[in-house]
TrEMBL record:
Chain segments carrying region Disordered: 306-361
Source organism, top-level taxon: Bacteria
Protein name: Transporter
Biased composition (Basic residues): 313-326, 340-353
């Protein structure tokens, strides 16, 4: 017979690396899943009965070469997200209120505009999740490199659809003559390129039925550092409309204070001078967690064959090891066993093979 310690150790490793990924079957994660500091929207919902507020302040300087104008703009944006009815469905509100001072240099005139540049509400529903299958999400117990390298299967994204409406209330100077309500639809995808990198895309058709409908796309890459509390992102946005068209580039960093609070900073610019745009934003996200998981918490589960419950602190340490924060949202990611753990597993397997080859006389 092999050593009891080796047997318990192998069973413990299998429980940690096979049970932990089950938490990814649901939308809910132990760590806040924020869309900030970029504008791209994650394919995943926040989780049933989770209320999340994502807020920020921003400043923008905008100069128009043809109109010979200069503009300073201050504002605030807010996103309220709620996991409605079940894990895959999310109700969200997005609003941006801004105060803009414009100088018309050719006429030596000044003007002011103040109102909502974004005021919309909608529902997002996850229609496909490639990580629903636990076999696909299972880590490789024999190769650290296999768990951390890029694989083509990771390009297969989670897909969600969004349907909502824009609201123009009163005499809005940013949307003169537009209807009070105009529909908006969007498709959002999310791919985990590597355990530390996530790609999100949004394709939207906005202000449907208005005089100036708008088509836009967003491509965002988020990367978690070795210290998973820090992450960074790079985002590209394209906008096409008869009213306004542009190409924008954004970047920034986010820091996870704890499981329910994230702070962030971002900046960006446009690629043209009609107008040229440079902007910076600061903000944060906070989660009110009323989620009740139907699964038994890992720290309360008994270790099969260990003769007793696993200590809570040990299991929490293992969960923290597999946790990842992303700048455009955060989720629990199973990074697979470490190099040290792999060496111990291989050593235990060699010992077991050696014992099985021994002949009893």
């Amino acid at each position: 017979m092999g050593s009891p310690f080796i047997t318990k150790r192998i069973l413990f490793q299998l429980i940690v690396f096979l049970i932990v990924p089950l938490s990814t079957l649901a939308q809910y994660t132990d760590v806040i899943n924020s869309n900030r500091p970029g504008l791209s929207v994650s394919a995943y919902a926040v989780g049933k009965n989770v209320v999340q507020a994502e807020m920020g302040l921003f400043y923008e300087q905008s100069d128009h070469a043809l109109l010979n104008t200069q503009s300073d703009l201050w504002g605030t944006n807010i996103s309220l997200r709620y996991g409605l009815l079940f894990e895959r469905l999310e109700l969200n509100y997005e609003g941006t209120f801004q105060d803009q001072d414009i100088v018309y240099n050719s006429f030596d005139l000044k003007a002011k505009r103040r109102d909502f540049s974004r005021n919309r509400m909608g529902l997002k529903f996850l229609v496909y999740d490639p990580y629903k299958n636990p076999e696909r999400n299972k880590p490789n117990l024999y190769s650290w490199r296999a768990n951390h390298k890029f694989q083509f299967k990771n390009l297969l994204p989670a897909v969600s659809i969004y349907a909502g409406a824009n609201f123009v209330l009163g005499d809005n100077p940013y949307y003169p003559g537009e209807p009070t309500v105009s529909p908006r639809v969007m498709v959002a995808t999310q791919s985990r390129m590597t355990p530390r990198m996530v790609m999100i895309t949004n394709t939207a058709y906005d202000r449907i039925g208005a005089d100036y409908p708008e088509f836009s796309y967003l491509i965002s890459l988020s990367h978690a550092f070795r210290n998973p509390k820090w992450s960074t992102f790079l985002e590209h946005q394209g906008i096409q409309s008869d009213r306004y068209s542009d190409l924008l580039l954004r970047g920034g960093v986010a820091y996870l204070i704890n499981e329910g609070i994230q702070v962030d900073m971002g900046l960006g610019a446009s690629f043209k001078n009609t107008p040229s745009r440079v902007f910076v934003n600061l903000g944060g996200s906070y989660r009110f967690d009323f989620h009740k998981d139907s699964l038994i918490p890992i720290e309360d589960q008994d270790a099969i064959g260990s003769g007793g419950p696993i200590k809570k602190n040990t299991m929490k340490k293992e969960k923290r090891k597999n946790r990842k924060s992303k700048g455009n949202g955060a989720e629990d990611i199973d990074l697979g066993p470490s190099k040290k753990q792999l060496r111990k597993l291989k050593k235990a397997q060699k010992q077991k093979k050696k014992e099985s080859n021994e002949i009893d006389f």
